[in-house]
Amino acid sequence: MLAAINLLLLLFLVVCAIVVARTKDLLSATIIFSAYSMVMSIIWQQLHSPDVAITEAAIGAGATSLLFLAAISRTGRHEE
Amino acid sequence: MHDMILEMLGRVLIPATQLFGAYILFHGHLSPGGGFSGGTIIGASFIFYSLVYRFSAKKHRLRHETSLWFEIGGALIYVGAGLVGILFGRHFLTNQGVFPIGEPGRIWSSGMILLVTLGIGAKVAGTVFKLFQELLEGGAEQDGHH
Predict the structure, then answer these.
(1) At what angle do helices B4-26 and B35-52 cross, to 10 degrees?
(2) Closest Cα to residue A16, out of A43, A46, A50, A51?
(3) Predicted local distance difference test score (pLDDT) of residue B109
(4) Chain A nearest-CA residue for B44
(5) pLDDT tens digits along B29-56
(6) Domain count, chain A
(7) Contacts of A53 in chain B (CB under 8 A)
(8) Of B40, B51, B146, the CB nearest to A58
């Protein structure tokens, strides 16, 4: 059961990574990247490293997304 | 511009985020987490605060000097805690024998680790918030738009 959930999480991770690279709308890409970081944080927890999980959730899903949003608000939303 | 949804969400989420960050900071030596993750969470709550109250009132805006003083204070706490060891004739950042070691498992249990963690937390929170401020508001007087 737990292995199936882990496999599902890893599959979601791969799909998220591919979609982030292929999305032209940068705001959507930022939100998908935030979801990627959240799932990555759960996977760190599954790998028995809660310290890294907390840091990943704080940096990846929190601070990096906000910095990307600030960068988008200063430039443009769509990739050319 | 005044956004009611943002403000109501912020009224609930900002204190909760800061409480969680403070918990991670103060339990850095007992449970997972520490200066870096706790400081980032507190810095993210500052970013959220400045996003929510940015457009509503002028007096709510956090100034650039505030984050600078956070950074300077955090670095000074870290270096000061390290220099105490040298003052007692030991190495830099000596913990055992210089600082009082409390009971294991309590908050006051590992000498200066708590002090150093708080310093790192202040430094990281200031840096994260400063990054956001510089990215959103820095250089606005040069290019003119937004």
Answers:
(1) 160
(2) A43
(3) 83
(4) A63
(5) 888 888 899 999 999 898 888 888 765 5
(6) 1
(7) 32
(8) B40
pLDDT tens profile B123-145? 999 999 888 888 877 665 554 44
Instruction: Answer whether B32 sits within 8 Å of A50, measured CB to CB.
Output: yes
Question: Mutation test of the interface with chain B: which of A45, A48, A66, choosing the one with the most B Cβ atoms within 10 A?
Answer: A66
The sign of the torsion formed by the CA atoms of B43, B41, A26, B6 equals negative
Q: What is the pTM of this model?
A: 0.84
User: Per residue in B71-118, pLDDT tens?
Assistant: 999 999 999 999 988 998 888 888 888 888 888 888 888 888 889 999
Residue numbers of the domain that contains A43: 2-74
For residue A61, is it within any domain?
Answer: yes
Asked whether residue A79 is domain-assigned, the answer is: no
Question: Residue B100's domain spans which residues?
Answer: 4-139
Let me know if residue A80 belongs to a domain. Answer: no
Domain count, chain B: 1
Listed in sequence order, the residues at least 6 apart from B51 whose beta carbon sits closer than 8 Å to its beta carbon are A66, B6
Asked whether residue B99 is domain-assigned, the answer is yes
Closest CA to B34 of B93, B121, B111, B101: B121
CB A58 within 8 A of CB B40: yes
CB nearest B37 (choices: A58, A67, A73): A58
